Amino acid sequence: MSSQLFAICFNATRPSELARFWSGVLGWEPADGPDGDAAVLPPDATGFRIRFLPGGEPKTGPNRGHFDLTSASPEDQRQTVARALELGGSHIDVGQLPEEEHVVLADPDGNEFCVIEAGNKFLADTGAIGALACDGTQEVGYFWSEALRWPLVWDQGQETAVQSPNGGTKITWGGPPVAPTTGPNRLYFELALPADADRDAEVDRLVSLGATRTVTGEDHGGRVLLLDPDGNEFSLRRG
Asked: What is the fold, at CATH topology level, of the domain defined by 4-173?
C-alpha cells in the first residue's frame, strides 16, 4: 500500500499560537503533539491535518505554497477575513491588483493565505481549504499525482492540479517562472504509511518517480526525509 498525505507541516516560531489561529479560522479541532508541536485536525477522515513544528527560523521571503480558503457568499468571505484579523492575522500586499476579489492575509507567523471570493468554480465543493496553491513546475505536479495516486484535475499551460479521489482540497502548481530554492521550506508535505507497510519499498517507489534522498536520511522521529523533483522537502512516516 502506498503512503497517504498525512499533514501539511509548517516550521513555526510559535506552534501553539498558530494552531489556535488556524483552529479559529477553519473551525477545526486543535490538538497538542509531542516535543512542543501542535496541530489542527480535519473535520473528517478523508482530509489532512495541519501541523506546526517548533524551531522555524524567522520568515525572510514568501512561502512556496499557501492556502486558498473558500467562501459560500460575499458575507461569508467578509466574516472569514474579520475572524482572521481578530485572531491575529494581517492584511499583506503581494502584488495583487485592486480589481481582484480575493483577500490576501498572513497568519501571526507571516504565512500567506488567501480568502477567495464566492462563486469560484475551480474550488467548488472542496471544503474550507479549497486549495494549497504552490510554486512549482509541471513535472512536480505529475510527480505528486503519481506519488499520492491522486488524479490530475488540471493540466494546462504547464499549470497542474491534483485532488484526492475522495474530493476535498486541491493541490495546485502554477508553472514557470518558478523561483529558485534558497533554503529549507517553511511548508512541506508529510506522508504516512500503514504500520505494517514496507517503508523501504515505498521510498524506492518515490525515488523511481523522481524523488531524491536527502543527506540527512532520517530525523529524530524516524521520518525519512526526501526531496521532490523541484527540490522541495517532504517526509515519510509510519501512520
From this structure: 2,3-Dihydroxybiphenyl 1,2-Dioxygenase; domain 1 (3.10.180)
